[in-house]
Amino acid sequence: QVRLVESGGGLVQAGGSLRLSCAASERTFSSYTMGWFRQAPGKEREFVATIIWNGRIEYYSDSVTGRFTISGDNAKNTVYLQMNSLKPEDTAVYYCHADQKTWGQGTQVTVSS
Predict the structure, then answer these.
(1) 99, burial (CB in 10 Å: exposed 0-12, middle 13-18, buried 19+)
(2) Residue of higher predicted confidence among 72 and 82
(3) Predicted pLDDT at 28
């Protein structure tokens, strides 16, 4: 079973940027739909972005469209989430997934106003 490890979270001021990384334990990206969800305190986990590897199709939630970009590097078995123009409401734990069956441990993103 593939294992996922996220990194890149942290504290940033509103308007700033962060890039999250999700490293997979094996070279299986072409077989999976990869993506990111997030969960804020007291809220349910919500969809952020996904990439369908073979077709290079990307989907985004309305709340991040135009600000976030999902991408991947097959050679490094890594998926990225570039987050620009961050807002306080983006504060959450961000989770990477493979086919929504395997999940990473999460990385905290905190945006101060």
Answers:
(1) exposed
(2) 82
(3) 60
